[in-house]
Write a structure and sequence with these properties.
Layout lengths: L2 H4 L6 E5 L2 H4 L12 H5 L18 H14 L4 E5 L2 H4 L9 H16 L3 E7 L5 H4 L9 H16 L5 E6 L1 H10 L12 H23 L3 E7 L3 E3 L4 H24 L5 H6 L8 H7 L5 E6 L3 E5 L8 E3 L17 H14 L4 E6 L17 H19 L4 E7 L18 E3 L6 E3 L1 H11 L15
Parallel strand pairs: 1-2, 1-11, 2-3, 3-4, 4-5, 5-7, 6-8, 7-10, 10-11
Antiparallel strand pairs: 8-9, 12-13
Helix pairs in contact: 4-6, 8-10, 9-10, 10-11, 10-13, 14-15, 15-16
Bound molecules: beta-D-glucopyranose.
């Protein structure tokens, strides 16, 4: 393998990603309304260690320093999310200009440093005022979302030229409405398909609004995970198909093909419902790109007791697993991108998240944080991505998750995904070896991926 084999296309967008509630802190500052995460973390027992986003990485006050950090690492792009309740404290109605100004200043600073911003409008922090009206269960949320999106389009479009409507709607419904591990913490088979459908309608309404007021590019961010049958039995094969439809097809099929995968009715049974055709016309909008978050795969077997998809994950004994228990499996990126090409006609794709939580040693006396497993993870996944480009995928950029160690939702601060270490006592930032390595990858546009990575960390 030579440098020419691993170099990425000209203009490839390299960056890191974060989300508002996970890094900002000061969630109620300057007139912001509360989000459902603010409420969730206040309920004892729902997050590890009772952790909250009260301080997080204090990015709300240290944003300038964080942009300088990215610039120092040579990043070309940055994916962040906007906290809906900072902009509209009640979720709708009057605009809190101080909230808008925060993101406006951030974007100006990014542009001044030559970093291309990608803004996600919704990364799970729904305003509580809307949750009190039913949140994602209320069909009105489609236009609440579009109205909020329009405020941000009018404020930032032109300076921001890459927009994403929703981050991982599958996690919102599976974690928030079906299993209850994430805000708003419901556990209800009947609610999950309704929340999913309204997320999709909101996405459609947001894109539609963008076409009337925005001039650049907008897409949807989904997390996809290839599902492989554990064995050759018909039951395992069917289980893998169900798991695949549930996680990978549930949102992309309606958004891009205007229908749900047929397995959905089997999965939800009595709780599934047929939706009016007009809804699919709203949901299926022309998208400029798909944002694909990739972390792992799953090997699945039939498991009638696993509610409601009836599939179980089979842990691979010989594989490396991250601290969140996810198998490291770079080929899944290649396989999933092949599936996207075949099923959806090769749309432009950004890898909007990819990364791993590993145990990190403390900052050493020489100032380094040695995280060779994360370096390996980046190296192997970027080689896989390069292979997918060779196979014909139209990949426009890659965002490592995450710029900083941050609030990992119900796992609190226990899991570290950052390329940059955060000392949660002093809030000091220290680039890990993985940050230094990624910086070299970016500077060489992928050329150094042809060499073993650890030479750069010695
Ligand atoms: C989410 C992030 C999260 C990451 C690691 C993604 O599902 O978009 O917010 O921190 O995965 O779990």
């Amino acid at each position: 393998m030579t440098a020419a084999d691993t170099r990425f296309p000209d203009g490839f967008l390299w960056g890191t990603a974060t989300s508002a509630y996970q890094i900002e802190g000061s969630p109620l500052a300057d007139g912001a309304g509360a989000s459902i995460w603010e409420r969730f973390v206040r309920t004892p027992g729902l997050t590890v260690g009772g952790d909250t986003g009260e301080v997080a990485c204090d990015h709300y006050r240290r944003w300038r320093e964080d942009v300088a950090l990215m610039a120092g690492l040579g990043m070309k792009a940055y994916r962040f999310s906007i906290a809906w309740a900072r902009v509209l404290p009640e979720g709708r109605g009057s605009v809190n200009t101080r909230g808008v100004d925060f993101y406006s200043r951030l974007v100006d600073e990014l542009l001044a440093r030559g970093i291309t911003p990608m803004a996600t409008l919704f990364h799970w922090d729904l305003p509580v005022a809307l949750d009190d009206r039913g949140g994602w269960l209320n069909p009105d949320i489609a236009h609440w979302f579009a109205d909020y999106a329009e405020v941000m389009f009018r404020a930032l479009d032109g300076r921001v030229r890459l927009w994403a409507t929703l981050n991982e709607p599958w996690v919102v419904t599976d974690g928030g409405y079906l299993h209850g591990a994430l805000a708003p913490g419901h556990r209800n088979l009947y609610e999950a398909p309704i929340a999913a459908h309204n997320l999709l309608r909101a996405h459609g309404a947001g894109v539609q609004r963008y076409r009337s007021v925005g001039r650049h590019r907008i897409g949807l961010v989904v997390n996809l995970e290839p599902k492989y049958p554990a064995g050759g039995s018909a039951a395992d094969q069917a289980a893998a198909r169900r798991a695949h439809a549930y996680m990978n097809g549930q949102f992309l099929d309606p958004a891009l093909l205007g229908r749900y995968p047929e397995e959905m009715a089997d999965i939800f049974g009595d709780a599934w419902r047929e939706w009016p055709q007009a809804d699919f016309e709203l949901i299926r909008q022309k998208l400029d790109f798909i944002g694909f978050n990739y972390y792992t795969r799953s090997v699945t077997r039939d498991d009638p007791a696993a509610w409601p998809v009836r599939t179980g994950r089979v842990r691979q004994k010989l594989a490396t697993h991250t601290e969140t228990g996810w198998e490291v499996f770079p080929d899944g990126l290649v396989h999933t991108l092949a599936w996207i090409r075949e099923r959806y006609g090769n749309p432009p794709v950004y890898i909007t998240e990819n990364g791993a939580a590993f145990y990190d040693p403390p900052v050493a006396t020489d100032g380094r944080v040695r995280d060779p497993l994360r370096v390996d993870y980046l190296h192997s996944h970027l080689l896989a991505l390069r292979a997918a480009i060779d196979a014909g995928s139209d990949i426009r950029g890659y965002f490592a998750w995450s710029l900083l160690d941050n609030f990992e939702w119900s796992l609190g601060y226990a899991k570290r995904f950052g390329l940059v270490h955060v000392n949660y006592d002093t809030l000091e930032r220290t680039p890990k070896d993985s940050a230094r390595y990624f910086s070299r990858v970016v500077a060489s546009n992928g050329a150094i991926l042809s060499q073993p990575p650890h030479a750069f960390c010695a």
